[in-house]
Specification:
Four copies of one chain form a homotetramer. Chain A is an alpha+beta fold. The first copy, chain A, is 18% helix and 40% strand. Strand 2 (63-74) of chain A pairs antiparallel with strand 2 (63-74) of chain D, so a sheet runs across the interface.
Chain lengths: 139, 139, 139, 139
């Protein structure tokens, strides 16, 4: 992981809105910190659909995108019914791994930044090459 | 579903303790109602292990236990760090389905009752016969 | 709970779409049965917003809508990336409780039916009266 | 975050076992990556209880331990029914934040490493001082 996610929404090529469910809050009255990772995943899936390589295409090809590393910095709490905008970018891609960066905002205020590192694996979990389009992907 | 779960712990043949995680609470300061179903599942898995038919045995035989119906009555809220005792019984078994009943208590006070109805399915999701031991199981 | 949810979408006054997250699937390759309850909740919150009584209004008035009972019948499995339409109706309302019924469909095929029973509680969890609009609500 | 979690269990002062729930698996047949954070939290809560400063003591004092950052490196997949040993250490403590490091193992094989950074906040979410015992805590 060598990516520093930007606080500037313009640095991201795609964004996706998610409304916070009550089920995602905790007894501190805010969204539980573990619940951000499914938000990142939902935005990642929407991003892949947006660029014409939906995740179902990966799965049909027998490839899964395994999460190798995840990092989240929590900046301002999320609350029930907030509409969270997840800004997403493909930050880098190598032969076997790629990195995604994220900025979460609510009403244009930063709520969190995050990075996930991914590798491609076969259906039975063995590492494999990334799809070729990914290595040559230009924002 | 034709089972009425008892409020008497003695009516259940097995019990299993679960400590409430902070991640399972919601902004009302109590355990979110959706979180009871994984508690029932964990207790069901522990019960099957206890009677010598662990769920891994089912899966090794290519059988999954699909949940067909679930009912929960929430009686007293669960809170962070509570130790919940899940009392479990195999309430009935027919050729293709079986019913489990549950009583959840905290410090001997009823917190919830529940019933789940299950069928056996193959790995690709088609209904199949229950394991034979199940139909002849006596508490 | 005395409601039998209809399999006819026309019997419901409102519907709300939810796309299945990968995080909501389980090792059977389908949506885990516990994950339906947050779907019902999200649709309920959207319904209340739609009829002009958003749940945030309840919370601002110091009232929470406690779930007293929940029942789900699982009919056809949900899978990753499915767009689930949750049809919702306010099935009945009494002085202290109300019942909601639900039909989940994917591409017009029934996936599940459900009922939830609710009561109003104060912020510290004591039962209180339902909002007056609710008792007189007509579909 | 400036901690590099060790792969040597002996580097951790406490460990806590968690059995994987079926509800925590995903359609890849492994534990979903978001589910590790509640495991870390459960182990952290058990660690604080173990050293005589249970998290309920914090909450009674009006202090919450907010998660400021979380990092997980996924090394080997976790599966249903695995017994995961979460090794925990208080890696560092400053005036306003502290860092915890984690090693997850299954049958002595590393499954993941992680770091969480925490700050103390009041019940209404404002930063406050850490409990004094924490700054002077010696492993």
């Amino acid at each position: 992981m060598d990516v520093e996610p930007s606080l500037d929404p313009a640095a991201y090529e795609f964004h996706h809105d998610i409304r916070v469910r009550f089920a995602e809050t905790d007894a501190m009255g805010i969204v539980h910190h573990s619940r951000y990772l499914p938000y990142l995943e939902e935005a990642r899936v929407a991003f892949l659909r947006h660029i014409g390589h939906p995740y179902t295409e990966w799965r049909d090809a027998g490839i899964e995108s395994a999460v190798l590393e995840a990092f989240v910095r929590y900046r301002n709490a999320l609350r029930f019914d907030d509409v969270v905008t997840v800004h997403v970018a493909l930050a880098s891609a190598a032969r076997a791994t790629f990195q995604m960066s994220y900025l979460l905002t609510v009403a244009d205020r930063p709520a969190a930044t995050a990075v996930t590192v991914h590798g491609a694996v076969t259906a039975d979990g063995r590492p494999t090459r990334l799809p070729t389009w990914l290595a040559s992907y230009q924002q």
